[in-house]
Amino acid sequence: MSITEYFDLLFTDYTLRTISLGTAVLGIICGMLGSFAVLRKQSLLGDAISHAALPGIAVAFLITGAKDTNILLLGALVSGLIGAFWIRGMISKTHLKSDTALGLILSLFFGFGMMLLTYIQKQPNANQAGLDKYLFGQAATLVESDVRLMVIVTGIALLVVLLFWKEFKLLLFDQDYTKTLGFNTKFIDILITFFIVLAIVIGLQTVGVVLMSAMLLAPAAAARQWTNTLATMVFLAALIGGFSGVFGTAISATQNNLSTGPVIVLVASFFVVVSFVFSPTRGLLFKQIRLLKNRRDLQLKKTLQFMYGIAQTHENIDHPHTIRILNNFQGFTKKSLRKMEENQWILLNKQQWSLTSKGFAEAQNLFNQQTQHE
Amino acid sequence: MTQKIAIQVDDLTVAYNYKPVLWDIDLVIPQGVLMAIVGPNGAGKSTLIKAILGIIDPIAGSVAIYGEPYKKQRKLVAYVPQKGSVDWDFPTTALDVVMMGTYGSLGWIKRPGQKQKKAALEALEKVDMLSFKSRQISQLSGGQQQRIFLARALVQNASIYFMDEPFQGVDASTEIAIINILKELRKAGKTVVVVHHDLQTVPEYFDWVTFLNVKKIATGPVKDIFNDDNLTKTYGINYKVAVNK
Protein backbone atom coordinates (compact mmCIF):
# COMPACT_ATOMS: atom_id res chain seq x y z
CA MET A 1 0.00 0.00 0.00
CA SER A 2 1.34 3.42 -0.86
CA ILE A 3 0.71 6.65 1.00
CA THR A 4 -1.84 7.84 -1.56
CA GLU A 5 -3.67 4.55 -1.29
CA TYR A 6 -3.69 5.07 2.45
CA PHE A 7 -5.37 8.42 2.15
CA ASP A 8 -7.94 6.88 -0.20
CA LEU A 9 -8.56 4.12 2.29
CA LEU A 10 -8.79 6.65 5.09
CA PHE A 11 -12.22 7.62 3.85
CA THR A 12 -13.47 4.13 3.05
CA ASP A 13 -11.80 1.72 5.44
CA TYR A 14 -13.47 1.75 8.83
CA THR A 15 -10.59 0.33 10.87
CA LEU A 16 -7.99 2.61 9.36
CA ARG A 17 -10.23 5.61 9.87
CA THR A 18 -10.79 4.74 13.51
CA ILE A 19 -7.10 4.30 14.19
CA SER A 20 -6.12 7.47 12.32
CA LEU A 21 -8.73 9.49 14.17
CA GLY A 22 -7.51 8.03 17.47
CA THR A 23 -3.85 8.84 16.86
CA ALA A 24 -4.73 12.32 15.57
CA VAL A 25 -6.78 13.13 18.67
CA LEU A 26 -4.07 11.71 20.88
CA GLY A 27 -1.50 13.91 19.16
CA ILE A 28 -3.70 16.96 19.67
CA ILE A 29 -4.27 16.49 23.40
CA CYS A 30 -0.63 15.57 24.01
CA GLY A 31 0.64 18.58 22.07
CA MET A 32 -1.69 20.92 23.90
CA LEU A 33 -0.97 19.70 27.43
CA GLY A 34 2.65 18.90 26.65
CA SER A 35 3.23 22.62 26.07
CA PHE A 36 2.35 23.28 29.68
CA ALA A 37 4.63 20.50 30.89
CA VAL A 38 7.54 21.82 28.85
CA LEU A 39 7.05 25.42 29.96
CA ARG A 40 6.83 24.33 33.60
CA LYS A 41 10.18 22.59 33.14
CA GLN A 42 8.44 19.34 33.94
CA SER A 43 9.41 17.61 30.74
CA LEU A 44 10.27 14.43 32.55
CA LEU A 45 7.11 14.39 34.61
CA GLY A 46 5.32 12.78 31.68
CA ASP A 47 7.90 10.03 31.51
CA ALA A 48 7.57 9.26 35.21
CA ILE A 49 3.77 9.32 35.08
CA SER A 50 3.49 7.03 32.08
CA HIS A 51 5.81 4.50 33.70
CA ALA A 52 3.89 4.89 36.95
CA ALA A 53 0.69 3.91 35.13
CA LEU A 54 1.89 0.38 34.38
CA PRO A 55 1.23 -1.26 37.76
CA GLY A 56 -2.27 0.21 37.67
CA ILE A 57 -3.00 -1.71 34.47
CA ALA A 58 -1.70 -4.93 35.98
CA VAL A 59 -3.59 -4.48 39.25
CA ALA A 60 -6.83 -3.66 37.40
CA PHE A 61 -6.44 -6.88 35.44
CA LEU A 62 -5.68 -8.93 38.54
CA ILE A 63 -8.76 -7.60 40.33
CA THR A 64 -11.25 -7.88 37.48
CA GLY A 65 -9.66 -10.70 35.49
CA ALA A 66 -10.95 -9.06 32.35
CA LYS A 67 -9.15 -7.12 29.64
CA ASP A 68 -11.69 -4.37 29.28
CA THR A 69 -9.73 -1.36 28.05
CA ASN A 70 -11.66 1.20 30.05
CA ILE A 71 -11.10 -0.63 33.33
CA LEU A 72 -7.42 -1.14 32.61
CA LEU A 73 -7.04 2.55 31.77
CA LEU A 74 -8.89 3.48 34.94
CA GLY A 75 -6.29 1.46 36.82
CA ALA A 76 -3.58 3.29 34.89
CA LEU A 77 -5.16 6.62 35.76
CA VAL A 78 -5.23 5.84 39.47
CA SER A 79 -1.65 4.66 39.66
CA GLY A 80 -0.51 7.48 37.36
CA LEU A 81 -2.12 10.02 39.67
CA ILE A 82 -0.62 8.37 42.75
CA GLY A 83 2.78 8.56 41.08
CA ALA A 84 2.31 12.19 40.04
CA PHE A 85 1.22 13.41 43.45
CA TRP A 86 3.85 11.35 45.19
CA ILE A 87 6.44 13.16 43.09
CA ARG A 88 4.89 16.53 43.97
CA GLY A 89 4.93 15.63 47.64
CA MET A 90 8.51 14.43 47.56
CA ILE A 91 9.70 17.63 45.93
CA SER A 92 7.89 19.92 48.34
CA LYS A 93 8.47 17.95 51.54
CA THR A 94 12.02 16.67 51.21
CA HIS A 95 15.39 17.96 50.12
CA LEU A 96 15.25 15.84 46.97
CA LYS A 97 15.56 17.65 43.70
CA SER A 98 12.82 17.05 41.16
CA ASP A 99 14.97 14.89 38.85
CA THR A 100 15.74 12.56 41.74
CA ALA A 101 12.09 12.32 42.74
CA LEU A 102 11.07 11.66 39.13
CA GLY A 103 13.71 8.99 38.69
CA LEU A 104 12.79 7.27 41.94
CA ILE A 105 9.07 7.12 41.23
CA LEU A 106 9.63 6.09 37.62
CA SER A 107 11.78 3.10 38.46
CA LEU A 108 9.81 2.12 41.55
CA PHE A 109 6.45 2.02 39.75
CA PHE A 110 7.82 0.60 36.51
CA GLY A 111 9.67 -2.14 38.38
CA PHE A 112 6.54 -3.00 40.32
CA GLY A 113 4.50 -2.99 37.11
CA MET A 114 6.96 -5.27 35.31
CA MET A 115 6.96 -7.66 38.24
CA LEU A 116 3.16 -7.86 38.17
CA LEU A 117 3.17 -8.35 34.39
CA THR A 118 5.55 -11.32 34.57
CA TYR A 119 3.48 -12.74 37.42
CA ILE A 120 0.31 -12.40 35.31
CA GLN A 121 1.99 -14.06 32.34
CA LYS A 122 2.81 -17.14 34.42
CA GLN A 123 -0.86 -17.55 35.35
CA PRO A 124 -2.67 -20.49 33.76
CA ASN A 125 -5.23 -18.26 32.18
CA ALA A 126 -5.68 -17.86 28.46
CA ASN A 127 -6.95 -14.37 28.97
CA GLN A 128 -3.67 -12.90 30.15
CA ALA A 129 -1.97 -12.57 26.80
CA GLY A 130 -1.62 -9.11 25.37
CA LEU A 131 -1.24 -6.97 28.46
CA ASP A 132 2.33 -6.26 27.41
CA LYS A 133 0.96 -4.25 24.48
CA TYR A 134 0.77 -1.38 26.97
CA LEU A 135 4.56 -1.33 27.08
CA PHE A 136 5.03 -0.21 23.49
CA GLY A 137 1.44 0.38 22.47
CA GLN A 138 -0.52 -1.17 19.66
CA ALA A 139 -2.62 1.24 17.67
CA ALA A 140 -4.20 -1.60 15.72
CA THR A 141 -6.21 -2.58 18.80
CA LEU A 142 -8.01 0.78 18.88
CA VAL A 143 -11.76 0.37 18.44
CA GLU A 144 -14.48 2.94 18.08
CA SER A 145 -15.30 3.08 21.78
CA ASP A 146 -11.62 3.77 22.60
CA VAL A 147 -11.53 6.61 20.13
CA ARG A 148 -14.80 7.97 21.47
CA LEU A 149 -13.24 8.09 24.94
CA MET A 150 -10.19 9.89 23.55
CA VAL A 151 -12.35 12.47 21.80
CA ILE A 152 -14.40 13.12 24.95
CA VAL A 153 -11.30 13.49 27.15
CA THR A 154 -9.66 15.79 24.61
CA GLY A 155 -12.84 17.87 24.41
CA ILE A 156 -12.95 18.27 28.18
CA ALA A 157 -9.24 19.11 28.30
CA LEU A 158 -9.73 21.75 25.61
CA LEU A 159 -12.62 23.24 27.52
CA VAL A 160 -10.62 23.39 30.75
CA VAL A 161 -7.64 24.95 28.98
CA LEU A 162 -9.86 27.62 27.43
CA LEU A 163 -11.69 28.28 30.70
CA PHE A 164 -8.56 28.53 32.87
CA TRP A 165 -6.29 29.95 30.19
CA LYS A 166 -5.47 33.09 32.13
CA GLU A 167 -4.77 31.17 35.34
CA PHE A 168 -2.62 28.57 33.58
CA LYS A 169 -0.54 31.22 31.86
CA LEU A 170 -0.04 33.14 35.09
CA LEU A 171 1.02 30.04 37.01
CA LEU A 172 3.36 28.90 34.27
CA PHE A 173 5.11 32.26 34.19
CA ASP A 174 5.22 33.30 37.83
CA GLN A 175 3.87 31.02 40.54
CA ASP A 176 4.61 33.21 43.56
CA TYR A 177 3.00 36.21 41.94
CA THR A 178 -0.07 34.12 41.12
CA LYS A 179 -0.40 33.36 44.80
CA THR A 180 -0.20 37.02 45.83
CA LEU A 181 -3.02 37.86 43.41
CA GLY A 182 -5.28 35.57 45.40
CA PHE A 183 -5.42 32.54 43.12
CA ASN A 184 -5.28 29.09 44.62
CA THR A 185 -2.06 27.91 43.00
CA LYS A 186 -2.42 24.42 44.41
CA PHE A 187 -5.74 24.01 42.62
CA ILE A 188 -4.37 25.25 39.29
CA ASP A 189 -1.32 23.05 39.67
CA ILE A 190 -3.43 19.97 40.44
CA LEU A 191 -5.71 20.74 37.51
CA ILE A 192 -2.80 20.91 35.05
CA THR A 193 -1.18 17.79 36.48
CA PHE A 194 -4.47 15.87 36.42
CA PHE A 195 -5.04 16.56 32.75
CA ILE A 196 -1.44 15.70 31.86
CA VAL A 197 -1.94 12.35 33.59
CA LEU A 198 -5.23 11.89 31.73
CA ALA A 199 -3.60 12.60 28.38
CA ILE A 200 -0.86 10.10 29.13
CA VAL A 201 -3.31 7.41 30.18
CA ILE A 202 -5.42 7.60 27.05
CA GLY A 203 -2.25 7.33 24.97
CA LEU A 204 -0.99 4.17 26.64
CA GLN A 205 -2.93 1.81 24.38
CA THR A 206 -1.57 3.49 21.26
CA VAL A 207 1.96 4.57 22.08
CA GLY A 208 2.72 2.67 25.25
CA VAL A 209 4.33 3.38 28.58
CA VAL A 210 7.88 3.66 27.34
CA LEU A 211 7.44 6.20 24.54
CA MET A 212 4.50 8.18 25.87
CA SER A 213 6.55 11.09 27.20
CA ALA A 214 7.87 11.79 23.70
CA MET A 215 4.29 12.41 22.58
CA LEU A 216 4.02 15.14 25.21
CA LEU A 217 7.39 16.74 24.66
CA ALA A 218 8.16 16.53 20.97
CA PRO A 219 5.24 18.59 19.58
CA ALA A 220 5.67 21.22 22.30
CA ALA A 221 9.43 21.48 21.80
CA ALA A 222 8.95 21.81 18.05
CA ALA A 223 6.17 24.41 18.40
CA ARG A 224 8.25 26.56 20.79
CA GLN A 225 10.74 27.20 17.98
CA TRP A 226 8.22 28.89 15.72
CA THR A 227 6.43 31.34 17.98
CA ASN A 228 6.74 33.73 20.87
CA THR A 229 3.21 33.65 22.20
CA LEU A 230 1.75 30.97 24.40
CA ALA A 231 -1.53 30.66 22.50
CA THR A 232 0.22 30.06 19.19
CA MET A 233 2.59 27.63 20.81
CA VAL A 234 -0.21 25.53 22.28
CA PHE A 235 -2.14 25.62 19.02
CA LEU A 236 0.92 24.70 16.94
CA ALA A 237 1.87 21.91 19.31
CA ALA A 238 -1.61 20.44 19.02
CA LEU A 239 -1.37 20.71 15.25
CA ILE A 240 2.05 19.08 15.09
CA GLY A 241 0.88 16.37 17.47
CA GLY A 242 -2.20 15.68 15.35
CA PHE A 243 -0.16 15.57 12.14
CA SER A 244 2.38 13.25 13.70
CA GLY A 245 -0.46 10.93 14.68
CA VAL A 246 -1.94 10.82 11.19
CA PHE A 247 1.36 10.60 9.32
CA GLY A 248 2.74 8.05 11.73
CA THR A 249 -0.31 5.90 11.21
CA ALA A 250 -0.05 6.39 7.45
CA ILE A 251 3.57 5.30 7.36
CA SER A 252 3.04 2.30 9.57
CA ALA A 253 -0.08 1.27 7.68
CA THR A 254 1.71 1.39 4.34
CA GLN A 255 4.82 -0.47 5.48
CA ASN A 256 4.64 -3.97 6.80
CA ASN A 257 5.74 -4.73 10.31
CA LEU A 258 6.21 -1.15 11.42
CA SER A 259 4.51 -0.66 14.74
CA THR A 260 2.48 2.54 14.89
CA GLY A 261 3.47 4.04 18.26
CA PRO A 262 7.21 4.29 17.60
CA VAL A 263 6.59 5.60 14.09
CA ILE A 264 4.35 8.38 15.44
CA VAL A 265 7.06 9.30 17.92
CA LEU A 266 9.66 9.32 15.15
CA VAL A 267 7.50 11.58 12.99
CA ALA A 268 7.06 13.97 15.93
CA SER A 269 10.82 13.89 16.52
CA PHE A 270 11.36 14.69 12.87
CA PHE A 271 9.27 17.84 13.42
CA VAL A 272 11.53 18.69 16.35
CA VAL A 273 14.71 18.36 14.30
CA VAL A 274 13.30 20.41 11.44
CA SER A 275 12.10 23.09 13.85
CA PHE A 276 15.40 23.32 15.67
CA VAL A 277 17.31 23.72 12.43
CA PHE A 278 14.97 25.74 10.23
CA SER A 279 12.93 28.01 12.49
CA PRO A 280 13.51 31.56 11.22
CA THR A 281 14.03 33.18 14.61
CA ARG A 282 15.32 30.47 16.93
CA GLY A 283 16.57 27.89 14.45
CA LEU A 284 20.24 27.00 14.37
CA LEU A 285 20.60 27.52 10.64
CA PHE A 286 19.27 31.05 10.37
CA LYS A 287 20.90 32.04 13.62
CA GLN A 288 24.26 31.02 12.18
CA ILE A 289 23.56 32.79 8.90
CA ARG A 290 22.55 35.97 10.74
CA LEU A 291 25.66 35.76 12.86
CA LEU A 292 27.96 35.47 9.84
CA LYS A 293 26.16 38.25 8.02
CA ASN A 294 26.38 40.58 11.01
CA ARG A 295 30.06 39.85 11.35
CA ARG A 296 30.68 40.65 7.70
CA ASP A 297 28.67 43.85 7.92
CA LEU A 298 30.56 44.97 10.98
CA GLN A 299 33.89 44.18 9.35
CA LEU A 300 32.90 46.22 6.33
CA LYS A 301 31.92 49.14 8.51
CA LYS A 302 35.12 48.91 10.51
CA THR A 303 37.09 49.16 7.26
CA LEU A 304 35.01 52.14 6.22
CA GLN A 305 35.74 53.81 9.51
CA PHE A 306 39.44 53.23 9.05
CA MET A 307 39.26 54.80 5.59
CA TYR A 308 37.31 57.69 7.05
CA GLY A 309 40.15 58.31 9.48
CA ILE A 310 42.63 58.43 6.60
CA ALA A 311 40.38 60.56 4.38
CA GLN A 312 40.02 63.11 7.15
CA THR A 313 43.73 63.87 7.00
CA HIS A 314 43.11 65.43 3.60
CA GLU A 315 41.24 68.53 2.68
CA ASN A 316 39.30 66.72 0.00
CA ILE A 317 37.53 63.72 1.36
CA ASP A 318 37.45 62.11 -2.08
CA HIS A 319 41.22 62.33 -2.44
CA PRO A 320 42.45 58.91 -3.65
CA HIS A 321 44.70 56.79 -1.42
CA THR A 322 46.59 53.62 -2.24
CA ILE A 323 45.11 50.33 -1.12
CA ARG A 324 48.47 49.45 0.38
CA ILE A 325 47.87 52.01 3.08
CA LEU A 326 45.18 49.70 4.45
CA ASN A 327 47.64 46.86 4.89
CA ASN A 328 48.21 47.39 8.56
CA PHE A 329 44.48 46.96 9.05
CA GLN A 330 43.24 43.37 9.19
CA GLY A 331 39.61 43.69 8.25
CA PHE A 332 39.70 44.02 4.47
CA THR A 333 39.94 41.73 1.48
CA LYS A 334 39.56 42.33 -2.24
CA LYS A 335 36.04 41.01 -1.88
CA SER A 336 35.12 43.37 0.91
CA LEU A 337 36.49 46.35 -1.04
CA ARG A 338 34.34 45.37 -3.99
CA LYS A 339 31.38 45.04 -1.69
CA MET A 340 32.05 48.55 -0.41
CA GLU A 341 32.15 49.83 -3.96
CA GLU A 342 28.78 48.16 -4.54
CA ASN A 343 27.45 50.05 -1.56
CA GLN A 344 28.77 53.23 -3.21
CA TRP A 345 30.86 54.00 -0.19
CA ILE A 346 34.13 54.09 -2.09
CA LEU A 347 35.46 54.31 -5.64
CA LEU A 348 38.16 51.89 -6.70
CA ASN A 349 40.67 52.88 -9.32
CA LYS A 350 43.48 50.40 -9.93
CA GLN A 351 45.52 50.37 -6.74
CA GLN A 352 43.73 53.33 -5.26
CA TRP A 353 40.55 53.99 -3.39
CA SER A 354 38.69 57.16 -2.55
CA LEU A 355 35.79 57.82 -0.26
CA THR A 356 32.50 58.95 -1.80
CA SER A 357 30.31 61.52 -0.09
CA LYS A 358 27.85 58.74 0.68
CA GLY A 359 30.61 56.69 2.28
CA PHE A 360 31.73 59.74 4.22
CA ALA A 361 28.24 60.35 5.58
CA GLU A 362 27.85 56.68 6.38
CA ALA A 363 31.11 56.63 8.32
CA GLN A 364 30.14 59.73 10.24
CA ASN A 365 26.97 58.14 11.46
CA LEU A 366 28.43 54.72 12.00
CA PHE A 367 28.65 54.73 15.75
CA ASN A 368 25.24 56.27 16.22
CA GLN A 369 23.65 53.70 13.93
CA GLN A 370 25.35 50.83 15.61
CA THR A 371 24.24 51.81 19.09
CA GLN A 372 20.75 52.75 18.02
CA HIS A 373 20.39 49.32 16.52
CA GLU A 374 20.55 47.90 20.00
CA MET B 1 2.54 60.18 65.63
CA THR B 2 -0.90 60.16 64.16
CA GLN B 3 0.15 58.32 61.03
CA LYS B 4 -1.99 55.34 60.06
CA ILE B 5 -0.38 51.95 60.32
CA ALA B 6 -0.16 50.25 56.93
CA ILE B 7 1.51 47.00 57.88
CA GLN B 8 1.82 45.40 61.27
CA VAL B 9 3.81 42.22 61.80
CA ASP B 10 3.69 40.42 65.16
CA ASP B 11 5.98 37.65 66.40
CA LEU B 12 6.66 36.42 62.87
CA THR B 13 8.88 33.35 62.81
CA VAL B 14 9.80 31.44 59.65
CA ALA B 15 11.97 28.37 59.22
CA TYR B 16 12.70 26.40 56.07
CA ASN B 17 14.16 23.37 57.74
CA TYR B 18 15.43 23.45 61.30
CA LYS B 19 17.20 26.74 61.31
CA PRO B 20 14.97 29.79 61.66
CA VAL B 21 15.23 32.26 58.80
CA LEU B 22 13.23 34.90 60.62
CA TRP B 23 12.99 34.99 64.38
CA ASP B 24 10.21 36.70 66.24
CA ILE B 25 9.83 39.75 64.03
CA ASP B 26 7.72 42.63 65.27
CA LEU B 27 7.37 45.39 62.75
CA VAL B 28 5.12 48.40 62.36
CA ILE B 29 5.24 50.25 59.07
CA PRO B 30 3.34 53.53 58.92
CA GLN B 31 1.43 54.51 55.84
CA GLY B 32 3.18 56.65 53.25
CA VAL B 33 6.77 55.69 53.88
CA LEU B 34 9.36 54.52 51.39
CA MET B 35 11.14 51.86 53.38
CA ALA B 36 14.28 49.86 52.71
CA ILE B 37 14.89 46.47 54.27
CA VAL B 38 18.62 46.01 54.59
CA GLY B 39 20.73 43.19 55.93
CA PRO B 40 23.41 40.70 54.89
CA ASN B 41 22.81 37.75 52.59
CA GLY B 42 20.66 35.14 54.25
CA ALA B 43 19.22 37.67 56.69
CA GLY B 44 15.71 36.78 55.57
CA LYS B 45 14.86 39.98 53.69
CA SER B 46 13.05 38.30 50.80
CA THR B 47 11.56 35.78 53.21
CA LEU B 48 10.06 38.57 55.28
CA ILE B 49 8.27 39.97 52.23
CA LYS B 50 7.15 36.52 51.11
CA ALA B 51 5.83 35.69 54.57
CA ILE B 52 3.89 38.96 54.72
CA LEU B 53 2.42 38.18 51.30
CA GLY B 54 1.46 34.66 52.27
CA ILE B 55 3.77 33.02 49.72
CA ILE B 56 5.54 31.26 52.60
CA ASP B 57 3.70 29.89 55.62
CA PRO B 58 5.21 31.17 58.83
CA ILE B 59 5.69 28.88 61.82
CA ALA B 60 4.25 31.50 64.10
CA GLY B 61 3.09 35.09 64.09
CA SER B 62 0.59 37.23 62.29
CA VAL B 63 0.47 39.95 59.67
CA ALA B 64 -2.10 42.70 59.42
CA ILE B 65 -2.63 45.07 56.51
CA TYR B 66 -4.55 48.11 57.71
CA GLY B 67 -5.66 46.13 60.71
CA GLU B 68 -7.06 43.16 58.80
CA PRO B 69 -5.52 39.83 57.77
CA TYR B 70 -3.70 39.86 54.47
CA LYS B 71 -6.22 37.56 52.79
CA LYS B 72 -8.94 40.18 53.17
CA GLN B 73 -6.76 43.05 51.99
CA ARG B 74 -5.14 41.38 49.01
CA LYS B 75 -6.31 43.99 46.53
CA LEU B 76 -4.49 46.71 48.45
CA VAL B 77 -1.14 45.02 47.96
CA ALA B 78 1.13 44.66 44.93
CA TYR B 79 4.30 42.61 44.64
CA VAL B 80 7.38 42.90 42.46
CA PRO B 81 9.34 39.64 42.73
CA GLN B 82 13.02 39.30 42.04
CA LYS B 83 13.65 39.56 38.35
CA GLY B 84 15.55 36.28 38.38
CA SER B 85 12.66 34.32 39.83
CA VAL B 86 10.98 33.75 36.48
CA ASP B 87 12.02 32.31 33.13
CA TRP B 88 12.29 35.24 30.73
CA ASP B 89 12.29 32.87 27.78
CA PHE B 90 8.59 32.29 28.40
CA PRO B 91 6.67 32.81 25.16
CA THR B 92 4.94 36.11 25.83
CA THR B 93 5.20 39.84 25.21
CA ALA B 94 5.93 42.78 27.51
CA LEU B 95 2.33 43.99 27.32
CA ASP B 96 1.03 40.55 28.21
CA VAL B 97 3.19 40.39 31.33
CA VAL B 98 1.94 43.80 32.46
CA MET B 99 -1.64 42.67 31.81
CA MET B 100 -1.07 39.95 34.41
CA GLY B 101 -1.28 42.69 37.00
CA THR B 102 -5.00 42.97 36.25
CA TYR B 103 -5.73 39.28 36.76
CA GLY B 104 -6.18 39.61 40.51
CA SER B 105 -9.01 42.13 40.23
CA LEU B 106 -10.60 40.05 37.46
CA GLY B 107 -10.74 36.91 39.57
CA TRP B 108 -11.21 33.40 38.24
CA ILE B 109 -12.00 32.64 34.59
CA LYS B 110 -12.93 36.19 33.51
CA ARG B 111 -10.77 37.40 30.63
CA PRO B 112 -9.04 40.78 30.47
CA GLY B 113 -10.71 43.22 28.07
CA GLN B 114 -10.16 46.71 26.71
CA LYS B 115 -10.24 48.34 30.13
CA GLN B 116 -7.44 46.08 31.39
CA LYS B 117 -5.43 46.65 28.23
CA LYS B 118 -5.73 50.40 28.61
CA ALA B 119 -4.52 50.20 32.22
CA ALA B 120 -1.57 48.06 31.14
CA LEU B 121 -0.60 50.48 28.39
CA GLU B 122 -0.73 53.37 30.85
CA ALA B 123 1.55 51.51 33.22
CA LEU B 124 3.96 50.77 30.39
CA GLU B 125 4.00 54.45 29.59
CA LYS B 126 4.82 55.30 33.21
CA VAL B 127 7.91 53.12 33.15
CA ASP B 128 8.84 54.47 29.72
CA MET B 129 8.42 51.12 27.98
CA LEU B 130 5.46 51.79 25.71
CA SER B 131 7.49 51.32 22.55
CA PHE B 132 8.46 47.84 23.74
CA LYS B 133 4.93 46.61 24.31
CA SER B 134 5.01 43.93 21.61
CA ARG B 135 8.58 42.88 22.32
CA GLN B 136 9.18 39.27 23.29
CA ILE B 137 10.29 39.38 26.92
CA SER B 138 13.51 37.42 26.34
CA GLN B 139 14.63 40.26 24.07
CA LEU B 140 14.47 42.85 26.85
CA SER B 141 17.54 43.96 28.78
CA GLY B 142 17.73 43.37 32.52
CA GLY B 143 16.68 46.94 33.24
CA GLN B 144 13.76 46.72 30.84
CA GLN B 145 12.61 43.47 32.43
CA GLN B 146 12.65 45.17 35.82
CA ARG B 147 10.58 48.05 34.44
CA ILE B 148 8.07 45.55 33.07
CA PHE B 149 7.78 43.96 36.49
CA LEU B 150 7.27 47.37 38.06
CA ALA B 151 4.60 48.21 35.48
CA ARG B 152 2.82 44.95 36.28
CA ALA B 153 2.63 46.00 39.93
CA LEU B 154 1.55 49.55 39.06
CA VAL B 155 -1.41 48.13 37.12
CA GLN B 156 -2.65 46.60 40.36
CA ASN B 157 -3.25 50.13 41.60
CA ALA B 158 -2.48 49.09 45.14
CA SER B 159 -1.88 51.04 48.35
CA ILE B 160 1.12 49.02 49.44
CA TYR B 161 3.98 47.88 47.21
CA PHE B 162 6.50 45.19 48.08
CA MET B 163 9.59 44.96 45.90
CA ASP B 164 12.33 42.39 46.04
CA GLU B 165 15.66 43.91 45.00
CA PRO B 166 14.37 46.06 42.14
CA PHE B 167 17.79 47.61 41.62
CA GLN B 168 19.67 44.38 41.18
CA GLY B 169 21.43 44.17 37.84
CA VAL B 170 19.91 47.28 36.34
CA ASP B 171 21.74 50.24 34.83
CA ALA B 172 21.88 53.72 36.33
CA SER B 173 19.14 55.18 34.15
CA THR B 174 16.71 52.42 35.09
CA GLU B 175 17.63 52.75 38.75
CA ILE B 176 16.84 56.47 38.65
CA ALA B 177 13.62 55.87 36.71
CA ILE B 178 12.49 53.30 39.26
CA ILE B 179 13.35 55.35 42.32
CA ASN B 180 11.54 58.35 40.84
CA ILE B 181 8.42 56.25 40.37
CA LEU B 182 8.71 54.96 43.93
CA LYS B 183 9.03 58.51 45.24
CA GLU B 184 5.95 59.46 43.25
CA LEU B 185 4.07 56.57 44.82
CA ARG B 186 5.07 57.81 48.27
CA LYS B 187 3.92 61.31 47.36
CA ALA B 188 0.54 59.81 46.46
CA GLY B 189 0.32 58.41 49.98
CA LYS B 190 1.26 54.83 49.09
CA THR B 191 3.52 52.68 51.22
CA VAL B 192 6.51 51.12 49.52
CA VAL B 193 8.71 48.39 51.03
CA VAL B 194 11.91 47.55 49.17
CA VAL B 195 14.50 44.87 49.80
CA HIS B 196 17.67 46.80 49.16
CA HIS B 197 21.35 45.96 48.93
CA ASP B 198 23.19 49.16 48.29
CA LEU B 199 23.75 50.84 51.65
CA GLN B 200 25.26 53.94 50.05
CA THR B 201 21.96 54.95 48.50
CA VAL B 202 19.73 54.32 51.52
CA PRO B 203 19.73 57.90 52.86
CA GLU B 204 19.19 59.30 49.38
CA TYR B 205 16.36 57.01 48.29
CA PHE B 206 14.45 56.09 51.43
CA ASP B 207 12.92 57.84 54.41
CA TRP B 208 12.39 54.72 56.49
CA VAL B 209 14.62 51.71 57.06
CA THR B 210 14.52 48.30 58.72
CA PHE B 211 17.70 46.51 59.69
CA LEU B 212 17.25 42.79 59.54
CA ASN B 213 19.46 39.86 60.33
CA VAL B 214 17.16 36.93 61.16
CA LYS B 215 16.03 39.12 64.04
CA LYS B 216 14.90 42.65 63.58
CA ILE B 217 17.74 44.95 64.62
CA ALA B 218 15.99 48.29 64.25
CA THR B 219 13.27 50.04 62.33
CA GLY B 220 12.47 53.71 61.98
CA PRO B 221 13.18 56.92 60.09
CA VAL B 222 16.45 56.88 58.19
CA LYS B 223 17.62 60.13 59.72
CA ASP B 224 17.26 58.71 63.23
CA ILE B 225 18.48 55.15 62.98
CA PHE B 226 20.69 54.82 59.92
CA ASN B 227 23.93 54.98 61.86
CA ASP B 228 27.16 53.08 62.43
CA ASP B 229 25.80 51.44 65.52
CA ASN B 230 22.89 49.72 63.75
CA LEU B 231 24.98 48.90 60.71
CA THR B 232 27.54 47.19 62.91
CA LYS B 233 24.84 45.28 64.75
CA THR B 234 23.36 44.10 61.48
CA TYR B 235 26.44 43.29 59.44
CA GLY B 236 28.76 42.33 62.27
CA ILE B 237 31.46 44.67 61.08
CA ASN B 238 31.86 48.37 61.32
CA TYR B 239 30.37 49.33 58.00
CA LYS B 240 31.44 52.85 57.25
CA VAL B 241 28.88 54.79 55.35
CA ALA B 242 28.30 58.46 55.37
CA VAL B 243 25.15 59.21 57.27
CA ASN B 244 23.31 62.08 55.65
CA LYS B 245 26.43 62.63 53.52
Count, helices of chain B: 9
Shape of chain A: elongated
Please indicate the count of domains of chain A: 2
Q: In sequence order, what are the helices and strands of chain A, one letter per element?
A: HHHHHHHHHHHHHHHEHEEH
**Straight-line distance between termini of chain B:** 27 Å
For the largest interface, the chains and their residue counts are: A-B, 26 and 31 residues
Coarse shape of chain B: globular
* Number of extended strands of chain B: 10
CATH architecture verdict of the largest domain in chain A: Orthogonal Bundle
By secondary-structure content and strand pairing, the structural class of chain A works out as mainly alpha
In CATH's first tier, which class of the largest domain in chain A applies? Answer: Mainly Alpha
Topology (SSEs and partners):
The complex is a heterodimer of chains A (374) and B (245).
Chain A (H helix, E strand, L loop, with lengths): L2 H10 L1 H26 L3 H10 L1 H11 L4 H25 L4 H24 L11 H4 L7 H20 L1 H9 L1 H6 L4 H19 L8 H13 L5 H25 L5 H19 L5 H28 L9 E2 L11 H9 L3 E4 L2 E4 L1 H17 L1
Antiparallel strand pairs in A: 1-3, 2-3
Helix pairs in contact in A: 1-2, 1-13, 2-3, 2-8, 2-11, 2-12, 2-13, 3-5, 3-6, 3-12, 4-5, 4-6, 5-6, 5-11, 8-11, 12-13, 12-14, 13-14, 15-17
Chain B lengths: L4 E11 L4 E11 L3 E5 L6 H8 L7 E6 L2 E2 L7 E4 L13 H6 L3 H4 L7 H13 L15 H14 L4 E5 L7 H16 L3 E5 L6 H4 L2 E6 L1 E7 H4 L2 H8 L10
Helix pairs in contact in B: 4-5
